[in-house]
Amino acid sequence: MSTIHPRITDVLSRTFKVPVAEILPDSTMDSLDMDSLAVAEFAVVLREATGVELDTGTLHRSTTLAQLSDHLRAAAGGGSPVGSTR
Fold it and tell me: Which of 12, 35, 44, 75 has CA atoms 20 to 30 A from the CA of 82?
């Protein structure tokens, strides 16, 4: 299993106080009650946690967590976990 979704879950639950039960692959930023400012902050926190730069076209209020995970996985080179020190 990918280590990306647990990292996303950790950031959302710790930094943005989103209940873990609401953090599902098909959840969108909008469904998690994240406004545009929170989405921008989320992008910054994810960049710090993963090293992957998210542009404005990648992360917006209608982006699902599954789409975000796919993007992060692809940006990290596909096979290795994001943030891996290998």
Answer: 35
Distances (CA, A) of 54 to 1, 36, 39, 70, 83: 22, 14, 11, 12, 14
Kindly report the CATH number assigned to the domain that includes residue 20: 1.10.1200.10
Q: Note whether residue 85 is domain-resident.
A: no
Average the pLDDT over 28-45 and give the result: 94
Are 50 and 73 within 8 A, CB to CB?
no
pTM assigned to the model: 0.80
| 81: pLDDT strictly greater than 60 | no
The pLDDT value given to residue 53? 86
DSSP 81: P
| Residue 8: closest CA among 64, 79, 55 | 64
Question: What SS3 class is residue 21?
Answer: helix
